[in-house]
């Protein structure tokens, strides 16, 4: 049987025991359906080899060689990750277009006795739903943008708002990046398509009757672009700006970037990237602070002389970006809890400003 995808939220409701992507590891790494595992019936080299034969020699020869490779790899999966599964196991399988690779693997698994279903149209059908959600539809729920200078704990506040029942979209979490030159995470970012898939699913899960809070970002988070429809909605949305003293923000950043401060060599490499924008003596001062472990002082200098200035220039581009202001003297965990309570209470008024 072939399952026609009509919604981004459809698959989790159907009770499959596994969603299997049989495409090559490279295709899977670029993007895949949420929760899918990769059991490739052709690896990267095999797929390239079969494709070359198809184009340069003969489609028939390519299919014959491909069939042998698929059968061989299917046997490895049956003897490996699928070996311990019982007769009631029910997988959903897809490939690029829902054609030969997934169909061949499904036939083999069906002969074993498992109830197998295919995704009609394969990964391309899923991608079409993602594109429709991000590029063809307006954001359904009313947006509120959580704004504030660097170091005002916006990401932590989003998590605290979610615990209070407020809908949130954590763009930095979806992009796996903290949204600044220092925001790189060791595991790296997902591909643009994978980011868009995660974001589309998050948007599809929203209750349009309730507001959703999103952190103020530029149009790019690290190497990834925020889709234009969402970016336009963010620019037009009411804003709540968190304001905190420079010293409190510096202390917060020293805690929040503990992974980076634990690696002074990496930290100094990132600081060096700022050389085109600052005098040499300032860069050397920051490098010295990093090497000496004076991370709060380093954060204070970076915000005062780099990030706050950039933020003010960015904010000046949009006349209506100011919005409501929520002040706090501290960004310690207990103070953030109290601030989250204040923000949650203020949301209805912010929406109707």
Description:
The chain has 353 residues and is α/β, with parallel strands linked by helices. It has 2 domains: 2-132, Rhodanese-like domain (Oxidized Rhodanese, domain 1); 140-351, 3-Layer(aba) Sandwich (Rossmann fold). The protein has helices at 25-30, 44-56, 59-79, 100-112, 122-136, 154-163, 171-175, 192-204, 228-236, 246-256, 258-261, 264-272, 280-292, 295-316, 333-351; strands at 2-4, 18-21, 37-38, 91-94, 117-120, 143-148, 167-169, 212-215, 220-221, 224-225, 239-243, 324-327. The strands form 3 sheets. Strands 1-5-4-2-3 form a 5-stranded parallel beta sheet. It has a 5-stranded parallel beta sheet with strand order 7-8-6-11-12, sandwiched between helices.
In short:
This protein is α/β, with parallel strands linked by helices and 353 residues long. The chain has 15 helices and twelve strands.
CATH topology term of the largest domain: Rossmann fold
Strand elements, count: 12
| Sequence of strands across the biggest β-sheet | 1-5-4-2-3
User: What string, H for helix and E for strand, traces the elements in order?
Assistant: EEHEHHEHEHEHEHHEEEHEHHHHHEH
Given as residue ranges, the uncertain stretches (5+ residues, pLDDT < 50) are none
With helices defined by DSSP (H or I, 4 residues minimum), what is the helix count?
15
**In percent, how helical is the residue content?**
40-55%
Strand content: 5-15%
Assign the CATH architecture of the largest domain. 3-Layer(aba) Sandwich
CATH top level assignment of the largest domain:
Alpha Beta
Mean pLDDT: 93
């Amino acid at each position: 049987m072939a399952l026609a995808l009509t919604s981004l939220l459809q698959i989790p409701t159907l009770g499959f025991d596994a969603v299997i992507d049989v495409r090559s590891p490279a295709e899977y790494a670029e993007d895949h359906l949420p929760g899918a595992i990769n059991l490739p019936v052709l690896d990267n080299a095999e797929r390239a080899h079969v494709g070359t034969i198809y184009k340069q020699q003969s489609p028939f020869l390519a299919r014959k060689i491909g069939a042998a490779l698929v059968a061989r790899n299917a046997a490895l999966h049956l003897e490996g990750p699928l070996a311990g599964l019982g007769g009631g196991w029910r997988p959903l399988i897809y490939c690029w277009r829902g054609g030969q690779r997934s169909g061949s693997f499904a036939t083999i698994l069906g002969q074993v006795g498992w109830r197998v279903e295919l995704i009609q149209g394969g990964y391309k059908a899923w991608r079409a739903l993602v594109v429709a959600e991000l590029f063809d539809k307006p954001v359904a729920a009313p947006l509120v943008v959580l704004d504030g200078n660097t170091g005002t704990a916006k990401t932590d506040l989003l998590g605290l708002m979610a615990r209070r029942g407020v809908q949130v979209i954590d763009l930095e979490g979806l992009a796996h990046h903290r949204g600044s030159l220092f925001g790189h995470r060791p595991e790296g970012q997902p591909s643009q398509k994978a980011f868009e898939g995660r974001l589309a699913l998050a948007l599809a899960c929203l209750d349009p009757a309730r507001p959703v809070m999103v952190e103020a970002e530029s149009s790019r988070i690290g190497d990834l672009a925020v889709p234009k429809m969402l970016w336009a909605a963010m620019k037009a949305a009411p804003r709540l700006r968190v304001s905190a003293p420079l010293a409190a923000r510096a202390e917060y950043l020293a805690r929040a970037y503990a992974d980076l401060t634990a690696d002074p060599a990496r930290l100094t490499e990132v600081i060096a990237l700022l050389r085109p924008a600052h005098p040499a003596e300032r860069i050397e001062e920051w490098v010295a602070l990093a090497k000496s472990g004076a991370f709060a002082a380093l954060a204070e200098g970076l915000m005062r002389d780099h990030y706050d200035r950039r933020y003010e220039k960015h904010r000046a581009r949009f006349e209506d970006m100011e919005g409501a202001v929520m002040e706090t003297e501290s960004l310690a965990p207990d103070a953030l809890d109290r601030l989250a309570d204040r923000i949650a209470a203020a949301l209805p008024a912010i929406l109707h400003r």
